[in-house]
Amino acid sequence: MEDVENEQTIMKTYDWIVVGRGITGAALAYELAQVGLRVLLVDSDTAIQGATRYSYGGLAYWSGKSDLTRVMCAEGIERHRHLSAALDHDTQFRELDLVLTISANQDPEKMAAAYADCAIPPKLLSVEDACELEPLLNPNAIAGVLTVRHGHIHPEHLTQGYRQAFCRAGGEQQIAQVVELLRQGDRVQGVKTSDNQTYHAANTVVCAGGFSRALLNAAGIQVRVYFTHAEMIETPPVDLKLRTLVMPANTQRFQLEAQASAAEVEPFWDQRGYEPVPPILDAGAIQFLDGSLRMGQISRVLTQPFAAINSAASESAIRTQVGNVLPALASLPGTWHHCLVAFGGNNLPVVGAIEGVEGVYIFSGFTNPLVYVPPLAQRFAQWVMGKEDQIIAQISQNL
């Protein structure tokens, strides 16, 4: 009886509930509010956490290889160039040189050929020219680099801008952990939070990053969205100046995601504590405008969201491999961090209506690349208002 008396029910009904206040949820909530919908944005933390908090903030607008991804990359960078003005908040957008390092034992010409079909193919530089572009590089560790102009934002600033603009547009926020999707038969009618409150909406969209799969699965909804455990080191502001964003040309994370989302691996994703593929380490670093750095990253496919990780061993591995390419960074003071990063199959995000259950959608899996978020959020909002959208239609086939 006491439990019943303590449970509170919020009877207000929204057009949309958006679960997750990171970059994806904040962007989508803002765009839904912009088209005149009544929107509730729900998340457990007032502070920015998870993949948004620890993102490098890179915008790979040059990387589109298909017609679909080229369109999204072009729309994305154009949107980012004007978002600070649109949101009335500095996202710290800039364009800088991306340096893709080619290991000393790799063939530079062969690596360049792998990028030849990008919308803007990176340029191959010799070791000497690479070190002129980025003086902190270790010339003995590389056979050359590929370089291209690359977009960059501060992920926390962008998210904060979206949240504030969302509220100005009439949106509402609730700080609480969503523990359950309210499902009645073949329809989701809202959410229940950890403080025993329920919120109702005609539509609910899950933007919960690495926790999206578990939340949907608990409601009996199967979606091909996955997650990695990403690990990196963050430093306080330092005097050292990194001129470029440094990443390996042979980015293993994309290969890992493809292996982990393969059909034969799918049955193992609902087993606790399973590791279907071994971890990888892509040694790279970015420095933000305040002088702080993020360097890493290790990506692990562990099917349990709260898996235990040996942080000391991970930090040592990151420092060793990043230090091989950028020796001055190896001993900088810094703190190891860990978060979940959502991804979909076929190198595409997971966006659209979930088949077989009415009133529930997903907007997640933007690991590759982040530049898609603003244009897809805008397209999604127009699509739910009845406008046909071939981009949304193509991406939703990934569900």
UniProtKB/TrEMBL annotation:
All residue ranges annotated as the FAD dependent oxidoreductase domain in the record: 15-383
GO cellular component terms given for this protein: cytoplasm
Swiss-Prot/TrEMBL keywords: Oxidoreductase
Keyword ATP-binding on entry: no
Transmembrane segments: none
SUPFAM superfamilies: FAD/NAD(P)-binding domain
Record protein name field: FAD dependent oxidoreductase, putative
Organism: Coleofasciculus chthonoplastes PCC 7420
Lineage: Bacteria, Bacillati, Cyanobacteriota, Cyanophyceae, Coleofasciculales
